[in-house]
Amino acid sequence: MSGPAPELHAELTGILSAYRDGDHGTGQRAICEAMLAFLAARPDALHRSCLPGHFTASALIVDPAREAVLLTHHRRLGLWLQMGGHFEPGDKSIVDAARREAVEEGGIPALTMAEEVLELDVHEVFCSIGAHTRHLDIRYLALAEPGAEPVVSAESLDVRWFHRADLPTPLGEDIPLLVERAFGHLAG
Length: 188
Hints:
Number of domains: 1
Order of helices and strands: HHEEEEHEEEEH
Strand content: 25-35%
CATH architecture: Alpha-Beta Complex
Number of helices: 4
Shape: globular
Helix content: 25-40%
CATH class: Alpha Beta
């Protein structure tokens, strides 16, 4: 199977080079620099077959009232997480990959995606390629339209809306900060 379009590698380099985050002790600047170095060293960095690690794209979906987030209870990992996953050959852009993953895993086709990156994250996983690796995740914010009803995908045990102050367990350890960052972004 072929991997994502080579143009996405160049696009991601540009996105990360332009990424400006206040950091505020969250390590975003260091993560960004490490991601840029990895991209420079690995032309296959967006391919899931890249065993040292590979980039993924995800989206935290917020409800129209801006009170709740949509999380998936990931079947393989057993944790409540944002929607996200690997780059695919048909992805037209980095944000397009995040949108595709959000639609596939959340079942909500009408999403308004923020164009700017919300957060960067690197985490160890036992990936679908059957090996321990790292996911270098590019995270976006997505807003659902009124009346949006999630649908459970084959990758999930459940998909539900949770009020931002009442998140479920077991929860991915990075999700509370991601939710806080999203609502901070929405506030201004």
